[in-house]
UniProtKB/TrEMBL annotation:
Signal sequence, renumbered to the chain: 1-33
Name the UniProt record assigns to this protein: Guanine-specific ribonuclease N1 and T1
Species assigned in the record: Streptomyces goshikiensis
InterPro entries according to UniProt: N1-like, Ribonuclease/ribotoxin
Pfam families, per the entry: Ribonuclease
Source organism superkingdom: Bacteria
Classification via SUPFAM superfamilies: Microbial ribonucleases
Length: 148
C-alpha cells in the first residue's frame, strides 16, 4: 500500500473529499458559475401532483390554479351535475386533434362560464373516459392537462 505512513483519519478525510468531488462533478456539471440549473418537472412531492401518463408531453395546470369558474365546473362534474348549459356532458369530437386520439364518445365537454360573455364563451373542461381532465380557454385550440 502506498499510504503506509499516513494516519487513518487523514485517509478517511481524503477519501470523503474525493467522494464529494466525484459526486459534485457528476451532479453539478450543467450549471456554470453563478447559474442555476433549470427547475425539475413536478415529481409528485408534497403539494405537487405527479404528472400521470396521459398528460406526459402536454402543458399542465393544477386544478387549484384554474379560474374559479373552472373549479366550479370540476365540482359539478364530481357531483354528476346539474349542469347549467344543455350542451354540458355531450360528446366532444376532438376534430381539432389537440387531444390524444380516442374513439367517438370517449371525450365529453363542459362549459366554463366566462364573465361578461353573452354566450358560452371559449372556455371548456373536457373529460376522458379514463379519468382525464383537460382545460381550454381558447375554444379547443390548445389544452392543458388538469392535475387534480
Amino acid at each position: 500500500m502506498i499510504f503506509r505512513n499516513v494516519p487513518r483519519s487523514l485517509l478517511r478525510v481524503l477519501g470523503a473529499l474525493f467522494l464529494c468531488a466525484a459526486l459534485i462533478g457528476a451532479v453539478g456539471c450543467g450549471a456554470g458559475a453563478g447559474e442555476t440549473a433549470p427547475p425539475s418537472p413536478p415529481s409528485g412531492g408534497v403539494g405537487t401532483p405527479a404528472v400521470p401518463g396521459w398528460a406526459k408531453g402536454m402543458a399542465t395546470v393544477r386544478a387549484s390554479a384554474l379560474p374559479q369558474q373552472a373549479r366550479d365546473v370540476l365540482a359539478l362534474i364530481d357531483q354528476g351535475g346539474p349542469y347549467p348549459y344543455r350542451q354540458d356532458g355531450t360528446v366532444f369530437g376532438n376534430f381539432e386533434k389537440a387531444l390524444p386520439k380516442q374513439g367517438r364518445g370517449y371525450y365529453h365537454e363542459f362549459t366554463v362560464r366566462t364573465p361578461g360573455e353573452r354566450d358560452r364563451g371559449a372556455r371548456r373542461i373536457v373529460t376522458g373516459a379514463g379519468g382525464e381532465f383537460y382545460y381550454t380557454d381558447d375554444h379547443y385550440n390548445t389544452f392543458k392537462a388538469v392535475l387534480r
